[in-house]
Amino acid sequence: MHRNARFAYIAEVDISIDDGPGINEREFVHELLTNHPDEVVCVLPYPASPSGYHDDRIAYVTGHRRRNPLYYLIYNIALFFKVIKLHRQHPFDALVFRLNLIPLVPLLLYYTLRVPIILKTLAGYTTFSGLAGEKQRNITRLAYPLYKLSISKARVADTVSIPYIEWLEKNFGITRERIVLIPNGANTNLFMPGDKTEYKRRLGLENFDFIIGYVGALATLRHVDLLIKTLKELKTDKKLGLVLVGKGPDGELLQNLAEELRVGDRVVFAGFRPYQDVPDLMKTFDVAVDLTRVSMKIGEKSVDASYSQKIPQYLACGLAVVAWDVTDNRFIESVGIGRLVKPGGDDLKNLSEAIQHLLDLPDAERIDMGKRAREHAEAKFSVHNLTSERINVWRASLRA
User: What is the pLDDT of residue 51?
Assistant: First the structure.
């Protein structure tokens, strides 16, 4: 009788922490535990915040306490022996890793157990392109050979962005046949449309007729300053509000900017909110904006990438989206679920025109756009569907 392949999924991300990687991994691991318990054993660091997320079905290893040097060393040693023990009890057909900066343990396990390895969410542009701080750049010079060797041993890898495929091929020599594009997803059972009027009332935002929303880091790198400046450019008789959910290094600077531009009464700094509370805030938005853009240098050319986790969440809530006009986001206009902003030139003018277009739409058209957004999220960005896609890719790599 044919048996299912057995995989170990190994990541050092602490899924109890409400940051981008933590949330992505939490949703992914939950899907694995719920729908693929006989095929996948998840090996993760013990959570720093067990009340945030803890599951007895996970094979926990001593936590690294946010990569504290001493505990990180203990974690890696414990991880190595934990996987060997699990493999001896019930052999794995493949080890699946979300690579860390110095992937020594994946290589040691590969050479010790002689089991195929697979890589999830292969990325690293910020780390290996010189954009990181000086200390990390020095570490990457030492880590690069190990990282490249790990990639060379992988049966298959997935990545979140179209430009990433070309960058990984050029910088690490992985052939395109071994790279699969699997975007960031959203829990479509958590992020979903709701009664806008009711949620505005609950959250004290009923004084706004129309809300432009943003969720993420408050940083000029995310072009949040452009959003605030845009309020001065938009023309409408509606009571217009901008709701910014999140915290970041430029929070105070952005608050000062809102006051200087005399739009402080129209900008709500909602602050950091627990992951479970974010969908309720999104339900108050009429239009959602994400201006994440990473300019990737690939050989002699530069290519803009945008692989925001927030866009799938916005779409799942049935929201029209405004984002940069880059390769990763082209589907937004082709499906008719938002507007794209041409980067460069007068970014403020381009952004204002994109938002103004959605602001001027008849309510019925915007509602119809929201329905299409929800349908697209369920079809293309559901964590459930993306997890099944990954499992199928893993299985196929073993057959190949």
Answer: 86
Q: 170-181, pLDDT tens digit by residue?
A: 999 999 999 999
Angle at 114 between CA 108 and CA 118, to 5 degrees: 80
Beta strands at 294-298 and 301-305: parallel, antiparallel or unpaired: antiparallel
pTM, rounded to two decimals = 0.94
Query: In 158-176, which positions are buried (b, 16+ CB within 10 angstroms) versus exposed (e)?
Result: bbbbbbbbbbbeebbebee
HEC sequence for the chain? CCCCCCEEEEECCCCCCCCHHHHHHHHHHHHHHHHCCCCEEEEEECCCCCCCCCCCCCEEECCCCCCCHHHHHHHHHHHHHHHHHHHHHCCCCEEEEECCCCCHHHHHHHHHHCCCEEECCCCCHHHHCCCCCHHHHHHHHHHHHHHHHHHHHEEEEEECCHHHHHHHHHHHCCCHHHEEECCCCECCCCCCCCCHHHHHHHCCCCCCCEEEEEECCCCHHHCHHHHHHHCCCCCCCCCEEEEEECCCCCHHHHHHHHHHCCCHHHEEEEECCCHHHHHHHHCCCCEEEECCCEEEEECCEEEEECCCCHHHHHHHCCCEEEEECCHHHCHHHHHCCEEEECCCCCHHHHHHHHHHHHHHCCHHHHHHHHHHHHHHHHHHHEHHHHHHHHHHHHHHHHHC
| Burial class of 367 by CB neighbour count within 10 A (0 to 12, 13 to 18, 19+) | middle
Residues of the chain predicted below pLDDT 50: 1
- The token pair at 378 is 């369920």
Check residue 37 and give its pLDDT: 96
Tell me the pLDDT tens digit for each residue of 341-379: 999 889 999 999 999 999 999 999 999 999 999 999 999
Q: What CA–CA distances, in Å, run from 14 to 18, 45, 50, 61, 233? A: 9, 6, 10, 11, 42
Measure CA 398 to chain center: 27
